[in-house]
Amino acid sequence: MKTPPKKTNITSSKLFAETDTPDDFATRVLNWFDQHGRHDLPWQVINDPYKVWVSEIMLQQTQVKTVLNYFDRFMARFPTVESLAQVNWEEVAPFWAGLGYYARARNLHKAAQQVVAHGHFPTTLDGWMALSGIGRSTAGALMSLGLQQYGVIMDGNVKRVLTRHQAIEGDSQSSAIVAQLWDLAEQLTPSMRNASYTQAIMDLGATLCTTKKPLCIYCPLQADCQAYAQNRVLDFPQKKPKKVVPQKQAYVLIVQHADTGQWLWQQRPSEGLWGGLYCLPIVDQAELDQFQTQFERQFSQTLPIIKHSFTHFTWFLSPQIFVVTATQATQLEQQIVGSQWLDEHTAIAKGLPKAMLKLLEQYHAGSN
Length: 368
Ligand code: SF4
Description:
By secondary structure, the chain is an alpha+beta fold. The chain has helices at about 20-35, 50-60, 65-75, 80-85, 90, 100-120, 125-130, 135-145, 155-165, 175-190, 195-205, 225-230, 285-295, 325-335, 345-350, 355-365, and strands at about 245-255, 265, 280, 280-285, 295-300, 305-310, 315-325, 340. Strands 1, 4, 5, 6 and 7 form a five-stranded mixed beta sheet that branches. A three-stranded antiparallel beta sheet has the order 3-2-8. α1 (about 20-35) packs across α11 (about 195-205), α2 (about 50-60) crosses α3 (about 65-75) and α9 (about 155-165) crosses α11 (about 195-205). The termini are far apart.
C-alpha cells in the first residue's frame, strides 16, 4: 500500500478515525467490493485498454445502465482501435447518437487516429493525457484498469464519496478543492490491487453513496464518515449556487419534397452543438420569415414545441412544416450548406440527436 505523505492541506477534519489509516480505508472499500461490487461489466477485461477507454469515455456524465445499451453495439462495429481510426466520422456518429455529449465521441475518434499514428497505446499518464479528450481522471483509470498499473481517479462518484467522508466544505468544482481532493485520492489509493480499488471506489459511489438516497447503512466507510456523523450527507459535495440557464427560441424546418416525400436534412458543422450529426435545418425568426416568403408552409398539421436542455442553455424548438416542388428542392439543396434529401430511415441511420428523434415521434403520433 502507498504510504501517505506526512502533511495534507485538507483542513476540514481529521483524515481518518483514531485507529484508522489510509490502508484501512482501502481495505474496507476492497472488502466491500469483493462481496458487493460489479464484476461482470463488459469492459471489465484485462489487457484490453481499448475497451476500457471506450467505456470510460461513454461513462463520462452517463450512467452504467445507459452505457450498457451502447457499448456492445459500438464494440461489435469497432472492435479495435484501428477499426475506429480508419473510418470517417459519419460512420461513427450513428453508434453514439442518443448518448449525448458528442464532443466525447469526436475526441475518441480523433484520439484513435492519434494512437494508430503512434503505433501503440500510451504507457504513461502523460501519454494518455496527450490524447484528445482525455483528462487526468480518465488517464488514471486507463493506467489502472486498462494497463493494470498504478492509477488514481477522481470522477463524480469518487468526488462524492471523498467530500462526504471528509465533510469537505466549499465549492467542489473550485480548483482549490479539486486539488485537495486529488491529494486525498492519491493518499487513499493503494498500489496493491489498484485496478480493483479503482473499480471499487467508483462502484461504491454509484451504488451506495448515491447523489440523492445514499445507503449509508450498508457502507463500509460509515464508521468514520464525517458527513454521516454530522447528519449532513446530502450537503456534500457542495457547489456554487446554480446560475439561471438562459432559454433560446428557434424554429426547426420540416421541409418535405412534394414528389418523393423525403425531408431536407443537414449535417451540422463538426464543431459546436450536435457537431457532425444530422439534423433538420434550425433557423431564427428572421430566417423563418424569409423562408416563408419563398416556400409554402403547411398549417394543417402543427407539432408541439421540442424542449432540449444543454448545460449552458435550454432550446425551445418550434417545428414548421413546408412542402416544396422538385425545382425548389434542387435549389434548396444548393443553398443550404451540408443539406441532403433523405428518407427517414436513412436519416436515422446517419445518427440523429435525441431532440430530432423526439420530433419524428411526435410527427408520426400527430399523423395517426
Ligand atoms: Fe457516503 Fe454514507 Fe458511506 Fe458516508 S456513510 S461515504 S455518505 S454512503
